[in-house]
Specification:
Pfam families: tRNA_edit (PF04073). InterPro entries: YbaK/aa-tRNA-synt-asso_dom_sf (IPR036754), YbaK/aa-tRNA-synth-assoc-dom (IPR007214). This is YbaK/aminoacyl-tRNA synthetase-associated domain-containing protein. With 180 residues, this protein is an alpha+beta fold. The protein has a single domain, classed as YbaK/aminoacyl-tRNA synthetase-associated domain (YbaK protein, Alpha-Beta Complex). The protein contains six helices and nine strands, in the order E-H-E-H-E-E-H-E-H-E-H-E-E-H-E. A hairpin with a 6-residue loop joins strand 7 and strand 8. It is globular. The chain starts with 6 loop residues before the first strand and ends in a 5-residue tail after the last strand. The model has no long low-confidence stretch (mean pLDDT 94).
């Protein structure tokens, strides 16, 4: 991503990452080498997608993905999952997510729940370092992207990750139509 001045392998910047994300990078497995996961140091005030796009250029909207935490409810039981979709789409919570989780009702998890369960900051939740028992639902458009810009676990900084690496994360089925 040419808009950023300082792009480095994320494993060289573990000191700037929250512990769950740093641990995920230290334990990296898969077909994509860990040094292809890049870190970009950005201003924490530019963490939100709209501000990031305004600051770095409209083309970034097509190359960014958002990770959101959802809560599925069935019979008094609540299960949490994460969804990763391109930033110019929205998560099909009441369709694809609800069906995949086998939930009667699905909604975005409350912010306090999402942050407490992930150990990450609002505006920086990322699929790397999520609780191991959570499903990570990945939209096929993300998996098919050469690379996407995603959160780093904190508001400061972003990760640039090949889409195929995200599709290889544990517990990450790739779904058509997750992002609509």
């Amino acid at each position: 991503m040419d808009a950023f001045d300082d792009v480095r392998p994320a494993v060289e910047r573990l000191d700037l990452l929250c512990e769950p994300v740093a641990a995920a990078l230290r334990a990296w497995r898969g077909g994509v080498p860990v040094d292809e996961v890049r870190y970009v140091d950005t201003d924490a005030d530019k963490a939100d997608t709209a501000v990031l796009v305004e600051s770095y250029g409209p083309w970034l909207l097509e190359q960014s993905a958002n990770c959101v935490v959802v809560a599925g409810k069935r019979g008094g039981e609540v299960s949490l999952a994460a969804c990763l979709v391109l930033s110019h789409t929205r998560v099909d919570v009441n369709g694809a997510v609800r069906r995949r989780l086998g939930a009667r009702k699905a909604s975005f998890a409350p912010m306090e729940t999402a942050l407490g369960a992930t150990g990450m900051e609002f505006g920086g939740i990322t699929p790397l370092g999520l609780p191991p028992d959570w499903p990570l639902l990945v939209d096929s458009a993300v998996a098919d992207s050469p690379y996407v810009l995603i959160g780093s676990g904190s508001r400061r900084g972003k990760l640039i990750v090949p889409g195929k690496a995200l599709a290889e994360l544990p517990g990450a089925p790739v779904l058509e139509g997750l992002g609509v």
